[in-house]
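Bench log. Compound arrived from synthesis this morning; before running ITC I wanted a structural hypothesis for how manganese (II) ion sits in the protein. Inputs:
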Amino acid sequence: MKVRVFYHDKCFDGACSTALFTRFHRECVEPKATYSYHGLVHRAGALFNEADFLGDENAIVDFKYSASPKITWWFDHHLSAFLTPEDHEDYRRGMADGRYAMRRFYDPTYTSCAGFLTHIAATRFGFNAAPVAELVKWADIVDGALYESPQSAVEMAEPAMKLTLIIEATADPTLIPRMIPLLTEEPLAAVLKEPFIAPLLPPLLERHEEGIKLIRERAEYRDGVIYFDITDRQLEGYNKFIPYFLHPEATYNIGLSKSSFRTKVAVGSNPWTKRTPEEMVNLATICESYGGGGHARVGAISFPPDRSDEARKAAATIVEELRAHERGLAVPGKGAGGAFR
Ligand SMILES: [Mn+2]
């Protein structure tokens, strides 16, 4: 039996989910199956090419729903799992009439798809999850950004975080498919030492260090808000926890950066803040008023690359708005009534 697994590409949880699916399928469904791995990315327009669903069985993990009857297995945990209402309706109908029972699984309350898939495999198919506990733990931490401190999010001490750095940065389409079979068979520290993986790390750690240095130079911290502008430098995909690592007392961070296709205003809040939810500003609302979007705690606005001035103006306005809001609040942890400064 040939099994094709389609997964969220350049994502630690996507790679872990694929490895876990393989181990589960081999142990609980078909011991003689062979597996091939195909990464998928979010983009405008069609996400799938139906002609690729060529396996005797085809699985999608940690990625959007496909109503194709050629899909045998589906596991996902994203809130936005269904691209269209028709897809959602197909899923509901298939679950109601039993066609998709024990084959298509969805639960957006799970932190990682790896954790969800392992839970289903163990409780519904008798999969032994004990040997993969380390992998599931790290998929939860990385996908849910559940780091205990800004230090642990930025120091990159753990093998899982180093592998994430490699997975997110790779431009080699064969790398993750070669890494996947190892993830459930070796400790993550051993995967990192593989000869085809180990040499990729030092240049990425160096770039990460440069990111810390650059943001340290540029960050202006005042009244609970960090602001930095790195539009004159090519630094794509900097670690988003760096600003809070440098200024742990900050509540918000606004970062202006530029790539070939956009100037981006990133508007975030400190995941380790001592502020109560009631004291926080809804960042999605702010970003939406400039044509951007996001969640309550983190959002972004994209401008065309030739409209950096507009982006800078928007960023400055947001920074002032958030600083004024912070000045109006009590110092966190010092009780109500105390002036911020
Ligand atoms: Mn995921």
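What the model suggests: The CA atoms of residues 150 and 245 lie 5 Å apart. Residues 2-192 form a domain with the inorganic pyrophosphatase (n-terminal core) fold (CATH 3.90.1640).
ITC booked for Thursday regardless.
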